[in-house]
Amino acid sequence: MDIDRASLTFIRWLGLAGSIMLAVAGWLGGAMPHADLEATPASVARGAYGPIIIGLWLVGTAAQAYAWWSGRDRITSTREAAATALLWIAPFLFVPPIGSRDVYSYTCQGEMFLQGLDPYRQGVSALPCTWLETVAPIWRDTVTPYGPLFILLAGAAVAIGGSLVGTIVVFRLITLAAILAVAACLPALARRCGIPPQRALWVALAGPIVGAHLLAAPHNDAVMISLLVAGLFLVVRAQTRPALLLAAGALLGLAVAVKATAVIVIPFAILAAARPLLRSAALVGGAALAALLAVTFASGLGFGWVPAMRGSTSIVQFTSPPTAVGMTLTYAGQLIHPGFDAVPAVRALALVALAAVLLMLVIRALRAADREKSALQGAALGLAAFVVLSPVFHAWYALWALTLLAATTLRTNAFMLISIAAAFLVLPDGGGLPRFVKFPGAPLMTVFLVVLLVRYVRRRRAEAHPQPATAA
């Protein structure tokens, strides 16, 4: 026991050391308002603090990732898991934005809303935004794909913050509140699925992406995730109380009003409710729709954000598996025809595959003896399928699935590894390999996917046709 306690103590301080190194790297080379927007990883490395920034970032990420991975089955209490996770993210409350410039876009979108402009019809350059020079050029003329609830939050953040720094502080406090909400609600989901709650909290909140990307950036994904977890928490606690199911549906509808991705969870929440299916659909689904419509009309913005989501597909990076395959086929096809482009077709096939996977998960939950547990697992796997098959992938997207997977299954290693790999691909200023190393990045990703597919097929065949000794 003393050895285990000493090991946990080492893990806790190693993770904190990693967080501090990442925070220092952020102060030296984060996504500053005045940063060079044309910088590349090579130019960062040649800068005055370049080697120090990259060294701290790599070593800090490795230290926190190792501590996270090592502690997932050693942590002994829910309180200890939550306290350690919060200790590791604490340094990121006091740093400039790290790993992304999205918060500057959020700020400008909030200012647009306060000035009476529709961010679903015009880019932030139309105002023009007071802080336009901080926004990446690719997003200055792009309409926002975020839902009306987030635009309302962005407007409130700008109004309360009063300045660029103040607004970023408000966004970070909103993100921190969302993380605390996840910490409060996730253990109940874990207990319902037979998962140790301390492990669920550790896997969901102690990873290297949570502090350095979700909080330090900060990203609105935290709000969506917290609303999803809170909604499912109420579904599990509802039992014979319809009012809780109405509240759960409302929270899920608000999650959709932040990011449309959340809609994947609603069918599984309906299945998880301990009611006849039609009644569950009326309570949970009806409340979700009512909340979405209410916040949409309250904002006065309408549904322009739905078609605006297509703008994100302009990003072509090998971190998305379907996009990587499409890019690889494109490189091969252009040897014959210069205009060949396979990316749209492969992305379309991936979305068809996603629909098939979601349908399969719904059917499995309907047939399960424990429908509630199977539906919760289906929600997690549905988000995982979306992350894998989506045309675009950013590092923090892994948390959409990993948060629910942590509470519904012990088989989290794959997404933990995805999170670790994604954390290494992005530098503190928001640049990284995906944007600048399309080749050979896409072919290497494609080869990796083929290897995984072959291994999966072989394993399934071995399970279907076991050897006599194995069967015995």
TrEMBL record:
<feature type="transmembrane region" description="Helical">
    <location>
        <begin position="9"/>
        <end position="28"/>
    </location>
</feature>
<feature type="transmembrane region" description="Helical">
    <location>
        <begin position="48"/>
        <end position="69"/>
    </location>
</feature>
<feature type="transmembrane region" description="Helical">
    <location>
        <begin position="81"/>
        <end position="99"/>
    </location>
</feature>
<feature type="transmembrane region" description="Helical">
    <location>
        <begin position="200"/>
        <end position="216"/>
    </location>
</feature>
<keyword id="KW-0328">Glycosyltransferase</keyword>
<dbReference type="GO" id="GO:0016757">
    <property type="term" value="F:glycosyltransferase activity"/>
</dbReference>
<feature type="transmembrane region" description="Helical">
    <location>
        <begin position="245"/>
        <end position="270"/>
    </location>
</feature>
<dbReference type="Pfam" id="PF26314">
    <property type="entry name" value="MptA_B_family"/>
</dbReference>
<keyword id="KW-0808">Transferase</keyword>
<comment type="similarity">
    <text>Belongs to the MptA/B family.</text>
</comment>
<keyword id="KW-0472">Membrane</keyword>
<keyword id="KW-0812">Transmembrane</keyword>
<feature type="transmembrane region" description="Helical">
    <location>
        <begin position="348"/>
        <end position="366"/>
    </location>
</feature>
<feature type="transmembrane region" description="Helical">
    <location>
        <begin position="378"/>
        <end position="399"/>
    </location>
</feature>
<feature type="transmembrane region" description="Helical">
    <location>
        <begin position="146"/>
        <end position="164"/>
    </location>
</feature>
<feature type="transmembrane region" description="Helical">
    <location>
        <begin position="222"/>
        <end position="238"/>
    </location>
</feature>
<feature type="transmembrane region" description="Helical">
    <location>
        <begin position="282"/>
        <end position="306"/>
    </location>
</feature>
<feature type="transmembrane region" description="Helical">
    <location>
        <begin position="170"/>
        <end position="188"/>
    </location>
</feature>
<dbReference type="InterPro" id="IPR049829">
    <property type="entry name" value="MptA/B-like"/>
</dbReference>
<protein>
    <submittedName>
        <fullName>Polyprenol phosphomannose-dependent alpha 1,6 mannosyltransferase MptB</fullName>
    </submittedName>
</protein>
<keyword id="KW-1133">Transmembrane helix</keyword>
<feature type="transmembrane region" description="Helical">
    <location>
        <begin position="439"/>
        <end position="457"/>
    </location>
</feature>
